[in-house]
Design brief:
The protein has 175 residues and is mostly helical. It has a domain of 71 residues. The chain has 9 helices and no strands.
Length: 175
């Protein structure tokens, strides 16, 4: 076990990881009254950037104006601190288990640039979709399913169904 920890080959059992995620989700509902989500933190960051560059535009804008108010900074929301905690936890996990290195995982069949282009494209589509849907997958699917919402189950089926189709179509880039 000790050699696995030092070599970077130790990974948490996925079932135990799922149980831990469920416990975190339950604690989030208990302490905040809301489920998990990440897209709100990105939105807060964009609003704060627009407000820093052009405060007049942010206040006059129909979209940004509702997030910019007197005495309330857009970055002062629990979602921002949640994402900071996730990033810090990922960094510490990589550090403790000797997996902290800069590299791009990709199939030998594609170049690093193509892999990064696909990742950027997927991230942009995900970001646009999360704003159109008024939330990300963790907010819609995980939190929705946690409260037994039919919409949460439908969302999860749509996410996995779409991912299955995309994986089949783009499999030559990874396999």
């Amino acid at each position: 076990m000790d050699n696995k920890l030092k070599s970077g080959k130790f990974y948490l059992n996925p079932y135990m990881g799922g149980v831990c995620l469920g416990l975190v989700l339950m604690a989030t509902f208990y302490f905040t009254g809301r489920g998990l989500g990440a897209s709100g933190a990105v939105k807060s960051t964009v609003v704060a950037a627009v407000n820093a560059v052009s405060p007049e535009h942010a206040v006059k804008s129909h979209y940004y104006g509702k997030f910019v108010s007197e005495g309330q900074h857009p970055m002062n929301t629990w979602l921002v601190f949640e994402v900071i905690g996730v990033l810090a936890g990922a960094f510490l996990s990589g550090l403790f288990f000797n997996r902290l290195k800069f590299k791009v995982e990709h199939s030998p069949k594609i170049t690093i640039n193509r892999r990064l282009l696909f990742a950027l494209g997927g991230g942009l589509l995900f970001g646009i979709g999360s704003q159109l849907a008024k939330g990300c997958t963790s907010g819609a699917a995980l939190s929705g399913m946690a409260v037994l919402s039919l919409a949460g189950f439908i969302t999860m089926m749509a996410i996995f169904g779409t991912a299955f189709i995309f994986a089949w179509v783009f499999k030559k880039n990874w396999i």
